Amino acid sequence: MSSPSAVRPFSGIFHAQPAVSTFAFAVRHSGVFWFRGVLTEVTASLTADADGALSLAGSAAVGSISVTEPDAMRASVLGAAFFDAERHPELTFRSTALRLADDGGLDLDGELTMRGVTRAVTATGDWSPPRTADYGEVAGLHLTTTLDRRDFGLDWQAPMPDGGDAVGWEVRIDVDLLLIRAH
Questions:
Q1: Closest to 56 in 3D by CA, of 114, 95, 101
Q2: Please, which of 15, 38, 51, 64 could form a disulfide with 24 given CB 3.0 to 4.6 Å?
Q3: Domain definitions of the chain by residue range
Q4: What is the CA radius of gyration of the chain?
């Protein structure tokens, strides 16, 4: 990404449109494929203060997870060994710094809370400036990062019969937000 600049296209508050905003993840499984899931109940707000500084805060309902594997896999992912949805029904995030670049790139620093554990995270991505649509003023943010699931207490593992781990430690996170200006 090019260096962040004094780009200040946002003013006021924008809320994520929940029907299309997503929090997706992918993790290597059996060393041969990517197991993917999407949390579809996402809320987020992008706020620009009077000086144009941006902050982003949001959450995703763990119970809204959608996976393409059989129901037993979904139950396992929601269970105590992984997300522990019964005791920790949502993931939360808040930014500590959000920098936009002229070329449409962005850098984000913040804190992610998952399974009751809060850790600093950084993400990169891109942004689309506000524009008028039939249903209001809209903008977009796309964020991506990679984290070690053990940092959040997701430390279940099983050895493969011929060596290696059943589930990778590195998890790719991909967040897409369609933002609509608040009235």
A1: 95
A2: 38
A3: 12-181
A4: 18
How high is the pLDDT of residue 33?
Answer: 84
Residue 25 has pLDDT above 60, yes or no: yes
Sign of CA dihedral 121, 35, 91, 86: negative
Residue closest to 58 by CA, chosen among 123, 148, 9:
123
Share of the chain above pLDDT 70, in %: 95
Which amino acid appears at position 150 of this protein?
R
Could you tell me the CA-to-CA distances from 82 to 93, 98, 100 in Å, in that order?
18, 29, 34
Q: What is the CATH code for 12-181?
A: 2.40.128.110
Residue 78 sits at φ, ψ, to 5 deg, of -80, -15
- Rounded CA separation 59/140 (Å): 17
Residues 6+ apart with CB under 8 A from 44: 15, 16, 21, 56, 57, 58, 59, 93, 177, 179
The secondary structure of residue 87, as a DSSP letter, is T
- The Cα–Cα gap between 36 and 67 comes to 6
Q: Which of 152, 100, 142 is nearest to 121 (CA)?
A: 152
